[in-house]
Structure to design on (173 residues):
């Protein structure tokens, strides 16, 4: 039965379960997520399922990061149309609950999206979350103190939650 698996061409995530443990090596050679031996204890089953979801989560994060690395823009819906926003044009992003304001050089774009969703689209080497309501472009920072960063003559607060990370990153620039 296991002999059929090497012929599969598509990438898949498998958890094998058999009643004999000598199939385990073959299962892991096929890059199985996990191998369960019958009878299966619930704790062991739960561990295998969690390993599976951890693997999927890592792959999705890698795909998102590779998407961000290969592009220099993203789209948001604003005023009933999809608007292209270049990363280089962004000064800062401000959250207004379920809406965000994206301040770019010549205008402000308002979209119904959370700041966390937009943060996931941004390259982390170019942007910095400084507050639960603000993300700033690192290249747009004019000055900073322990309490705020100034971008395009706007004072943006640094929250206590992000303070250590923000100051460490700014000092290493």
């Amino acid at each position: 039965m296991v002999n059929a698996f090497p012929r599969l061409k598509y990438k898949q995530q498998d958890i094998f379960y058999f009643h004999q443990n000598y199939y385990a090596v073959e299962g892991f050679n096929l890059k199985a997520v996990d191998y369960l031996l019958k009878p299966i204890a619930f704790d062991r089953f739960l561990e295998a399922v969690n390993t599976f979801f951890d693997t999927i989560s890592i792959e999705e994060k890698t795909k998102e990061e590779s998407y961000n690395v290969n592009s220099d823009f993203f789209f948001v819906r604003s005023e009933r149309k999809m608007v292209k926003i270049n990363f280089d044009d962004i000064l800062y992003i401000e959250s207004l609950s379920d809406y965000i304001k994206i301040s770019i050089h010549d205008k402000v774009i308002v979209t119904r999206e959370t700041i966390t969703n937009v943060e996931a689209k941004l390259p982390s080497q170019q942007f910095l979350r400084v507050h639960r309501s603000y993300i700033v472009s690192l290249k747009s920072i004019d000055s900073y103190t322990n309490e705020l960063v100034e971008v395009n003559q706007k004072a943006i607060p640094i929250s206590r939650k992000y303070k250590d990370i923000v100051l460490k990153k700014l000092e290493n620039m």
Summary: Helices lie at 24-29, 42-70, 115-121, 160-171. The radius of gyration is 23 Å. The longest strand covers residues 90-96. DSSP finds four helices and twelve strands in the chain.
